[in-house]
Amino acid sequence: MRFSKLIYFILSFFVFTSCAESLDFNQLDDYVVKPVLTSSLTYFKVSPIQFFDENGVQQNSREDITDFIVFENSFFRKNVVKMVFNAEFKNEFDRDAMIQVDFLDANNIAIYSFAPIIVESGDVDPPPYEEDIVIATNPNILSATKVRFRAFLEDTGTQMNPLDTSEFEFKSSVTLFVESDF
Amino acid sequence: MKKLLFFLLILCIHKTVAQNKQVLYNFAELPQTQLLNPAAETNYKYYVGIPLLSGFSTDIGSTGLVLTDLFARDNININDKIASAFNKLTTQDFVKINTQLEVFSGGYRLNDKINLSFGFYEEVDGIGYYAKDVYDLYSQGNSAHLNRSFSVSQIQYKLDVLGVLHFGISKKVDEKLTIGGRFKIYSASLNLESNNNAGTFTTVEGANNLYTHYFNSINATFRTSGLVNAETDRYNKDIDEYVKNTFLAGNLGLGFDAGFTYKVSPQLEFSGSILDLGFVSYSKNVKTTNVEGDFVFEGVNFLFGDDNVNYWGEIDERFNEELPRTDNQDTYISWRPTKLNAAVKYSFGQRRSKVCYDNRYKDFYTDAIGVQLFSVFRPLRPQLALTAFYEKSLSNKIHTKFTYTVDDISYANLGAGLSMQLGKVNFYGMFDNILSYKNLSSSNSVSLQLGINLIFN
Fold first, then answer.
1. Across the interface, do B313 and A34 touch by the CB < 8 Å criterion?
2. Distance between A182 CA and the closest CA of chain B, angstroms
3. Residue ranges of B 208-227 with Cβ closer than 8 A to chain A
4. How close B335 gets to chain A, by Cα (Å)?
5. Which of B68, B304, B313 sits opposite A44 (nearest CB)?
6. How far is residue B252's CA from residue B226's CA, in Å, rounded to a whole number?
């Protein structure tokens, strides 16, 4: 009898004492990851000679374009909620310079433009520039496939010295704020 | 599926672990103890396992994390709970699963010295280590982690689904020594594994641009077999095919077990075994992806030339050249996780007799104590478990065993087992970590073994 009670106890132990606290796996539906991803974007360093054409005539503007592939990726296209564009620059030229940044769609039409960035002549330590783009209020930015950078020189009426070694330097990055369910 | 993927994500990865069956080891002369030591002593003429019921075992465990940490109904935001729970984890933490189901088994004693056994079982076995850097990069991004090197080497995981056909033999060399061996044929239908990865991703403040991104010495390999159809390049979602391939239609491999039992005296016994010394050669529906190289990215350097430079195209081309990703379908070898068991057992108490094969009688003691050591080899480090046990035979037909185990998961792991013989029918049940049964949701580990055999003397 003593043995049978022990056996009964062992077998019953797990049947009657085991339990599991109620769990709610559906909470995962509310899980949102919010990574913040930063990437270098564009940079350049130009000297006066790069503003002169083959005829030795100074051009007061230069531009260049690169692909912007972030929103080709469906994950980013769906989940980026904000972009922050950061830039730092210095202007050693003897005249003001202005940078114009435009996001272009596949037809090269500007769909979002930053306020012009003006850097005064000789300013080698201007405050950094920051532009916040909230996707919800600027959904057209999702169509951006290219970024165009245009550099304008102030027209002072005199040409720069093409042999001058002064530089205009520009650095930039983009930070993506992502909010994604799992 | 979404929840499964979530767990796979946090699993991030390592080598296969095997289940420690410390209660079953050397217990009650059960036929299934021969799978843990092919030289385990048995005293029946022959036995037949009830198909699909003779042996079921499962072992699910995690270190550092329990289900209630994440899914308790406590009105705490799931994002806060996950962040808090994962914050406590280290790269040493892991999640494991091992489940075995005996499809059939049997054994036959040729004579006083030779005992044969055979069978077939299905096994699902997996383990993944917590890849903290990968999770932090996924959940937080790199922005707040300048100068931090996110390591690819933390990605370590392995999952196997396979069938094992085995044949074992044990020989009683003399009254003291019994030796045994087991030959195994593996038939694996699914393998996912990645280990021995290297390399880092780091974002630092740059010189030419605001930031510089470094992919340093990246060498990561992700192997799959059975998951992706080689012809269609699509995931195989046919469960039936996975099951079918475990019946010798999958990727084949060979393995061996070996063991011994040595009786120093009628009361003192040493035993030991080495299990699954073998491999599987994966050749079917293989897809191995490798990423290797170095890459530095500073952004797009505008030249303001007259030519329309395809800046991004050039970067993309350089990326593919310097950090190429390659896929192949080459056959690869995956080693089974080799396990070691060792035990010393001292018997005492009342001395009784029982009927064995050929109507012989054998004396046995009603009580026994001892210690067992279990180890499974892995690249990071071997996992060890040390067990102290007490066995009590309540009668010739009813045996119990109680264990206390210290292992990676718990320092307070109590186990209990019972084997009963009712006529020819033998039933056994063993539960490990029984303290966790008061709330399985808060348990780091749950392990059990159950089965029914027909045993004939």
1. no
2. 7
3. 208-213
4. 33
5. B304
6. 13
Count of structural domains within chain A: 1
Q: Give domain status of residue A10, yes or no.
A: no
The CATH number assigned to the domain holding A171 equals: 2.60.120.1540
For chain B, how many residues are written? Answer: 457
Stretch 102-141 of chain B: residues touching chain A, C-beta under 8 Å? 137-141
Under an 8 A CB cutoff, do A7 and B301 touch?
A: no
Q: How confident is the model at residue A84 (pLDDT cuts 50, 70, 90)?
A: very high
* Residue of B218, B63, B196 lying closest to B150 (CA atoms): B218
Which among B85, B120, B81 is positioned nearest to B104, based on CA atoms?
A: B120
Q: Is residue A15 part of a domain?
A: no
The pLDDT tens digits of the residues spanning B63-98 come to: 888 888 888 888 888 999 998 889 889 898 888 888
Question: Is B84 in CB contact (< 8 Å) with chain A?
Answer: no
Domains located in chain B, CATH noted? 2-456 (2.40.160.40)
Q: How far A53 CA sits from the closest chain B CA (Å)?
A: 10
Minimum CA–CA partner of A7 in chain B: B418
Please give the Cα distance from B455 to B30 (Å, whole number): 9
Cα A104 off chain centre by = 15
Contacts of residue B323, Cβ cutoff 8 Å, sequence gap at least 6: B215, B218, B291, B292, B293, B294, B295
ipTM of the complex model:
0.87
Residue A86 domain flag: yes
Contacts of A55 in chain B (CB under 8 A): none
| Beta-carbon separation of A23 and B73 below 8 A | yes
Q: What is the mean pLDDT of chain B?
A: 88
Supply the DSSP string of B232-296, one letter for each residue: T-SB---HHHHHHHTTTTSEEEEEEEEEEEEESSSSEEEEEEEEEEEEEEE-SSEEEEEEEEEEE
Are residues B212 and A40, on separate chains, in Cβ contact within 8 Å?
yes
CA separation for the pair B370, B387 (Å, rounded): 8
Residue-range definition of the domain harbouring residue A112 = 31-181
Q: Is residue A36 part of a domain?
A: yes
CB spacing of B400 vs A6 below 8 angstroms: yes
